[in-house]
Amino acid sequence: MKQSLVTVGWREWVLLPELGLPRIKAKVDTGAKTSCLHASYVTPFKKDDDLWVRFGMHPNQDETETLIQCEAKVFDQRSVTDSGGHSEIRFVISTHFIMGELEFPIELTLTNRDNMRYRMLLGRRAMDNRVVVNPSESYVLGKSQDDNSIQKKQEILK
Predict the structure, then answer these.
(1) What ranges in the chain are assigned the alpha helix state H?
(2) pTM of the full predicted structure?
(3) Residue 157 above 70 pLDDT?
(4) What does R_g of the chain's alpha carbons equal in angstroms?
(5) Longest Cα pair distance anywhere in the chain, in angstroms?
(6) How far apart are CA 77 and CA 60, in angstroms?
(7) What is the CB neighbour count within 10 angstroms for residue 154?
(8) Residue 90 above 90 pLDDT?
(9) Three-class SS state of 61
(10) Can you give the CATH number for the domain in which 112 is found?
(11) What is the number of other CB atoms lying within 10 angstroms of the CB of residue 76?
């Protein structure tokens, strides 16, 4: 039995509770294969013989003063070609993703998006068999819980 798809707009509010981030705006991008998250810097390090990254995230759209430091285990490294045709090797992390009532693990590449409007792109791989996009709508799913739920969610996920 095929699950019913959730309708989303071309941009939505999302949460990444394991990273300790507040709610952020994501552009829903059917042209992007993989999802990506803004990282103003990315520093790899070893933790218990595993490769991890520490990265800085400016969570607020059009503002770079607020900086949240995040850490995540490296899931992979991939060559990604952006919309301008430029390729770069990016670290890939896997983390818990919440958008409206949808919750699932998501793979995110890390790249500097300071010059882009949205701090996150939601790509086709994450949307596959989950959502259908209505390009004339925005924030269809609302604000995905309040920011106070981040702390509770982090405790549950640990």
Answers:
(1) 124-127, 148-157
(2) 0.85
(3) no
(4) 15
(5) 48
(6) 26
(7) 14
(8) yes
(9) coil
(10) 2.40.70.10
(11) 11
